Amino acid sequence: MGTTARHFCVLLPGIFIVYQSIAQNYVTNQPPLVPQKYIELPLGSVKPQGWLLEQLTIMNKGLTGHLEEVYPAISKDNGWLGGTGESLEATPYWLDGALPLAWLLDDPVLKGKVLKYIDWVLDNQRPSGYFGPYTKYERDSGAKVENINQGDDLWPRMVMLKVLQQHYSATGDKRVIPFMTRYFRFQYENLTDTTRLINRYIEQTANSRC
């Protein structure tokens, strides 16, 4: 174990230095943040082989690659595609696994399935920075969400932000950074009375699951 550890310590800095010189679409900590010692490789840089490839292929042939065929909420009038159906975290959680799987396997069919959700989310951000499925306020009023009181549960959007982070890592999609910047500005401007906000979302989440 000691020998392995020494080789591990010697190899990692080499990997880090080489990768630093070729990283084109991966921004590391900027001052005054502490510099990162290592950089996560962009999604798809490491190609699975052997047992790992076999396991990922099983996932792709199973529920992860075909969830929309057995779980109607994903495919039927989905809120993350502009519909009135599933608008909480079920779809983002699925994408959080399906998107990296699609790029690890370089599977065009699965990529096509996940990208339609990514494209809809990125192309339908509100001018205020808010994003995601249309809210009850928007459907009733015909107006766009301008503040957090007109929006829905924040948590599903946090999961989708993680999905978008992976999408950016895999593709370098130039829409992602401005999109996130606008949303974080929206949060910064709205997250003031946190006690009232938490109580509101507890009530909203309870109602949506009853």
Strand content: under 5%
Shape: globular
Number of domains: 1
Q: How many beta-strand runs?
A: 0
In angstroms, what is the radius of gyration? Answer: 20 Å
Succession of helices and strands: HHHHHHHHHH
Q: How helical, in percent, are the residues?
A: 55-70%
The profile of the biggest β sheet is: none
How many helices? The count is 10
Q: State the end-to-end distance.
A: 53 Å
Average pLDDT figure: 84
Structural class: mainly alpha
Contiguous runs where pLDDT drops below 50 for at least 5 residues: 1-24
Show the helix and strand layout.
Elements: H1 2-22, H2 50-61, H3 63-70, H4 72-75, H5 90-105, H6 108-123, H7 136-141, H8 155-171, H9 176-190, H10 194-208
Written overview of the protein:
It is a single chain. By secondary structure, the chain is mainly α. The protein has one domain. The protein is 62% helix and 0% strand. It has 10 helices and no strands. The chain has helices at residues 2-22, 50-61, 63-70, 72-75, 90-105, 108-123, 136-141, 155-171, 176-190, 194-208. α2 crosses α5 and α5 crosses α6 (108-123). The longest helix is centred in the first third of the chain and has 21 residues, at 2-22. The chain is globular, with a radius of gyration of 20 Å. Residues 1-24 have low confidence and may be disordered.
